[in-house]
Design brief:
By secondary structure, the chain is α/β, with parallel strands linked by helices. The protein is elongated and about 105 Å long.
């Protein structure tokens, strides 16, 4: 009996059969798939402009000033730490989503800034942030 020689050919008939079966499956299922619609915003429907923030400034001596940037730069008033939350809530009476920015002088301890932020959070003031100034390099 003669030993069999190896064939150097690939039998592609099974691959063609599998490909045709998959093609039929995709052709049948493709029309059944639902397409999703995406609602894109149009140019004419612009959201209302963002509200100008309230700015709480902590000075080096520990005094606080409250500035309403919506009313201009001249509306700055001194306030105590005990009255700060009520002053901010009164200023936010028209717009409760008005952001509050806390700015500290360069030589103010970070603990004082966190104390003011903690008091505002306990008073249920929304949207509190820290104001930073980039260094001039």
């Amino acid at each position: 009996m003669r030993p069999r020689r190896l064939k150097n050919e690939i039998n592609v008939v099974p691959y063609i059969d599998v490909m045709l079966v998959l093609l039929v499956i995709f052709m049948v299922t493709a029309p059944m798939m639902t397409t999703a619609s995406i609602d894109l915003p149009s140019v004419g429907q612009a959201a209302q402009p963002p509200a100008q923030p309230l700015q709480v400034t902590i000075r080096a001596d520990g005094s606080l000033t409250l500035r309403d940037l919506a009313r201009g730069k001249g509306d700055e008033r001194e306030t105590s730490r005990a009255d700060l939350a009520q002053a901010i809530l009164a200023a936010q009476a028209d717009n409760p989503d008005q952001p509050v920015l806390i700015a500290g002088a360069r030589d103010v301890k970070y603990e004082a800034v966190l104390g003011v932020m903690d008091e505002l959070q306990h008073a249920q003031v929304k949207r509190i942030g820290l104001l930073v100034q980039p260094t001039g390099k």
